[in-house]
Amino acid sequence: HVQLVESGGGSVQAGGSLRLSCAASGDISSSACMGWFRQAPGKAREGVAAAYTGDASTYYADSVKGRFTISIDKAKHTISLQMNSQKAETTAVYSCPTGLATAAPMSACLAPGFMNIWGQGTQVSVSP
C-alpha cells in the first residue's frame, strides 16, 4: 500500500523560491516514474516535472525548465521539487504522484492518466 504525503507549500512572492517535499511509504517500484503536477483554480492539471526511481533521470515541462529542479532521495524515501523564480500565475495545488512503470519517451510520465497513485496535494500561492 503506497502512500504519498506532500509538504512545504505556502505563500511566496513572484520571483521567490519554495521547496516542496513528498514522503513516500509502502512498496514504491524501483523502476517507475514519479513526478510533480499542479492544478490551478479552474484549470486542468499540469505535469511539471518527472523523475525515474531507478536512475533518477529527470524531465521538465517547458513551462518550468530552468527554474524547477526535481530530485529523489532514495535513502529518505522522498521526492522534492525546488521551485525558483516563481510566477504569479502559478498559484496551484501541487501533487506528487507515482506510476507503476517508466515511460518512453520520458515526457509520457506527465501524460494524463499515466500516474496511478496520488498524494493529497499542497497549496502554493504566488503573489504578484
Low-confidence stretches: none
Please bin the fraction of helical residues.
under 10%
Q: Tell me about the biggest sheet?
A: 6 strands, mixed
**Helix-strand string:** EEEEEEEEEE
Number of helices: 0
Overall 3D form: globular
Question: Number of DSSP strands?
Answer: 10
Q: What is the average of the pLDDT values?
A: 93
Radius of gyration: 13 Å
Task: Describe the strand arrangement of the main beta sheet, using strand numbers.
Answer: 2-10-9-4-5-6
**What's the end-to-end separation, in Å?**
40 Å
Task: Please indicate the percent range of residues in DSSP E strands (runs of 2 or more).
Answer: 35-45%
Summarize the SSE layout with pairings:
Layout: E1 3-7, E2 10-13, E3 18-25, E4 33-39, E5 46-52, E6 58-60, E7 68-73, E8 78-83, E9 92-95, E10 122-127
Parallel strand pairs: 2-10
Antiparallel strand pairs: 1-3, 3-8, 4-5, 4-9, 5-6, 7-8, 9-10
Structural overview:
The protein has about 130 residues and is an all-beta fold. Helix content is about 0%, strand content about 45%. The chain has a 6-stranded mixed beta sheet with strand order 2-10-9-4-5-6, with no helix packed on it. A hairpin with a 6-residue loop joins strand 4 and strand 5 (about 45-50). The termini are far apart. The mean pLDDT is about 95.
Write a brief caption for the model.
By secondary structure, the chain is mainly beta. The protein has no helices and ten strands.
List keywords for this structure.
single chain; 128 residues; mainly beta; 6-stranded mixed beta sheet; 0% helix; 44% strand
